[in-house]
Amino acid sequence: MVIDAELYGSVVGTVMVKLDSINGLCADEAYSTELDEIRRRGGKIAELSRFAIVPGQPTRAVMGAMFHFVYYYAHLLNGINNLVCEVVPRHIAGQRRLLGFAPVAGPKQCERVGVEAAVLLHRTLECS
After folding, report:
1. What percent of the chain has pLDDT over 90?
2. Which has the closest alpha carbon to 48: 126, 127, 122, 128?
């Protein structure tokens, strides 16, 4: 599922949410051991990818708005209790600060994030 944030009728941010399935997640290509451990502990996983915010937009507000929809779709509608995403190292601090992610593995080569090695980030979802 793709979640877009709009401001005055224009898309200002987007994120893709992929629920775990029998086919696994894209991150399984590089991080199957780490993801299998989350699954083994009873974790239901969704993977976030393709984060993008239009330059000049309020990053904190746009990310916050999109994450509310991620929470609703993943956790409340689908019972997901773990989120993961692959990011380049320079994005770790922002994902930690804005969305509460923490690194769990990496860096490893990942074609989806470009030429840099990717780090697997993780966070749990709980009712609050």
Report:
1. 71
2. 122
Which residue carries 């393709």 as its tokens? Answer: 50
For the chain, domains (ranges, CATH) are 2-124 (3.40.630.30)
Could you report the per-residue pLDDT of 21-72, keeping only the tens digit for each? Answer: 999 999 999 999 999 999 999 999 999 999 899 999 998 999 999 999 999 9
Question: Alpha-carbon distance 57 to 72, whole Å?
Answer: 23
Q: CA-based angle 81:74:27, to the nearest 5?
A: 75
Cβ(88)–Cβ(76) below 8 Å: no
Residues facing 85 on adjacent strands: 48, 121
Say if CB 43 and CB 82 are below 8 A apart. yes
